[in-house]
Amino acid sequence: MHQDRFYIPNAPATNEIWLDGREAHHILHVKRAKLGAKITLFDGEGFEYLARITEIFHDTLKVCIERSNAVDREAPVDITIAFSIPKGKLATFLIQKCAELGVKTLIPIHCERSVVDIRDRSEAKIEKWDKIVIEASKQCKRNSITKIKDVMPLDSLIKTAGNYDLSLIACTETHTKTLKSVLNEYPSLKRIICLIGPEGGFTYTEIEMAKKAGFVPISIGLSTLRIETAAIAITSMLLYFFV
C-alpha cells in the first residue's frame, strides 16, 4: 500500500518523536492525516521509517516509529553537476529533475558569459532550492538528499578536478569527443563531475583553463542544448551507462 513520505532532517533518537514546521503542516493540512494514520519518514541519509501518528496538538504531531530500514535507491556512481544558472524558473526545473534522477551534488558556477548572478544572495537561493530537492526526494522515493553547494567562480571550481575519478566539461567545440566514447575509456568510475556552461557556452579561455586542470571536453549530440536540458541529458546518459 502506498504511504505518503515526509522528510526528517535527523535520524530519530527514540521511537517516539514530535514533528512540526513545514512537514507537520503538510501532513495535517495538506494530506489531512488523522490519528492512527501510517506514514513513511526518511532522513536523507539512506534510512526510511514506518511510523504511526499517535498525538496531534495544533500544528504539531507525535509519531511512533514501528520499523526502520536502510533502503538504498542511489546510483552506483556519484554524479556532480556544476552549472551556470539559467534564467527564471528554469533553475528550479533543473534542480528538481537532477534531484529526481539521483544527482549527488549540484554546484552553481559563475562564468564569463553567465547572465544570472546570485553571488550576493546565494544563501537565500540555496535555502529555496533545498526545499525543492526535499520535495523531489519525497516524490521519487529517494532516501538521500541532493546537496547544493554555494555558488563558485569557474576558476575556483576547476581546481577541484582531482577530487573526482573523471572530470568533464560540456562544450560544442569541433572534433570534441562524445560522452559515450570518453566513458568507454573509463568503465569503472565512482565519482564524476560535469561542467555545464551558460547560454552561449564557455569561452575559449575557460575551456583551455579547464583542460589544463584535467577536465575532458565532451559533446552529447549535434544540437546546442539549453542549460537545464544539458544537465538532464548528461545525467541520464551517465545513469544509462553505469546503472
UniProtKB/TrEMBL annotation:
Q: What is its main location?
A: cytoplasm
GO MF, one term, reads: rRNA (uridine-N3-)-methyltransferase activity
Principal EC category: transferase
InterPro entries per UniProt: Alpha/beta_knot_MTases (IPR029028), PUA-like_sf (IPR015947), RsmE (IPR006700), RsmE_MTase_dom (IPR046886), RsmE_PUA-like (IPR046887), tRNA_m1G_MTases_N (IPR029026)
Organism of provenance: Candidatus Jettenia caeni
Q: Which GO terms describe its cellular component?
A: cytoplasm
UniProt lists the family membership as follows: Belongs to the RNA methyltransferase RsmE family.
- Reaction catalysed? uridine(1498) in 16S rRNA + S-adenosyl-L-methionine = N(3)-methyluridine(1498) in 16S rRNA + S-adenosyl-L-homocysteine + H(+)
Q: Where is the Ribosomal RNA small subunit methyltransferase E methyltransferase domain positioned along the sequence?
A: 74-238
Give the EC number.
2.1.1.193
Keyword annotations for this protein?
Answer: Cytoplasm, Methyltransferase, rRNA processing, S-adenosyl-L-methionine, Transferase
What is the protein name given in its UniProt record?
Ribosomal RNA small subunit methyltransferase E
Q: Which Gene3D superfamilies match?
A: 3.40.1280.10
Q: Which residues form the Ribosomal RNA small subunit methyltransferase E PUA-like domain?
A: 19-56
**Cytoplasm keyword on record:** yes
Report the subcellular localization: Cytoplasm
NCBIfam families listed in its UniProt record = RsmE family RNA methyltransferase
